[in-house]
UniProtKB/TrEMBL annotation:
Protein's name in the database: Transcriptional regulator
Superkingdom to which the source organism belongs: Bacteria
A GO molecular-function descriptor: DNA binding
PANTHER family attached to this UniProt entry: REGULATORY PROTEIN ARSR, TRANSCRIPTIONAL REGULATOR, ARSR FAMILY
Domain HTH arsR-type: 19-108
InterPro entries: ArsR-like_HTH (IPR011991), HTH_ArsR_DNA-bd_dom (IPR001845), HTH_MetalResp_TranReg (IPR051081), WH-like_DNA-bd_sf (IPR036388), WH_DNA-bd_sf (IPR036390)
The entry's keywords: DNA-binding, Transcription, Transcription regulation
Transmembrane segments: none
Length: 205
């Protein structure tokens, strides 16, 4: 989740805000926030569909996200009986503080957020695999699942991440105008995990 790249204005940079980190580490809140950022404004009832909770429980989590500056009230619909929420940023980026070392509390909070994000991503991948036989041949052949072990130093790993990010940028849902996407475009995901293995005795580091 860390990044060395400049953070676009449409993202919120999350560094040492422990309260926000702990809010994001909750699976339901992450699901709600992702729904609002990727698909636009929604009610608590609509958010409940992705969070697996009741509308009243979603309302509580939405208020928590609002407290930390991630969501706010959106213009009402129709008769205005249901409260509509929207994300304040199209995405967020987790990065270490610019100065000083990570404190144990901050490191634990960041790790909790990362674990929640990875678990959420794994659940959606499992959902895809479970129903992939019902996808068209066009979409099945377009999906790519790759696991590769690399031999690289820290600078090379950063370069790999930057080059992949550059390729993905034009297609990110947070920046692409849906009206400009081709007919048949769907939400799709790219899961990128670049990390060094812990060194072992007698092995090249």
């Amino acid at each position: 989740m860390t990044t060395e790249q400049p953070v676009p204005e449409r993202y919120r940079l999350v560094t040492d805000d422990l309260g926000l980190l702990r809010a994001l580490a909750h699976p339901a809140r992450l699901a709600i926030l992702t729904r609002l950022q990727a698909e636009g404004p929604a009610t608590a009832t609509e958010c409940a569909e992705v969070a697996g909770l009741s509308p009243s429980a979603c309302s509580y989590h939405l208020r928590t996200l609002a407290k930390h500056g991630m969501v706010e009230d959106a213009p009402a619909r129709g008769d205005g009986r249901e409260r509509v929420w929207r994300a304040l940023q199209r995405g967020w980026v987790l990065r270490d503080p610019d100065e000083g070392e990570l404190t144990p509390d901050l490191l634990a909070a960041q790790s909790a957020v990362i674990e929640t994000v990875l678990a959420d991503a794994q659940a959606r991948l499992s959902d895809y695999l479970g129903q992939s036989a019902r996808e068209s041949s066009e979409w099945r052949t377009a999906a790519t699942l790759t696991h590769t072990v690399l031999l690289a130093d820290a600078d090379e790993l950063r370069e790999i991440a930057a080059r992949i990010s550059e390729i993905l940028d034009p297609y990110r849902v947070v920046s692409r105008d849906p009206d400009e996407a081709p007919t048949g475009a769907r939400l799709a995901e790219a899961h990128l995990r670049l990390f060094p293995r812990p060194p072992r005795a007698g092995r090249r580091k």
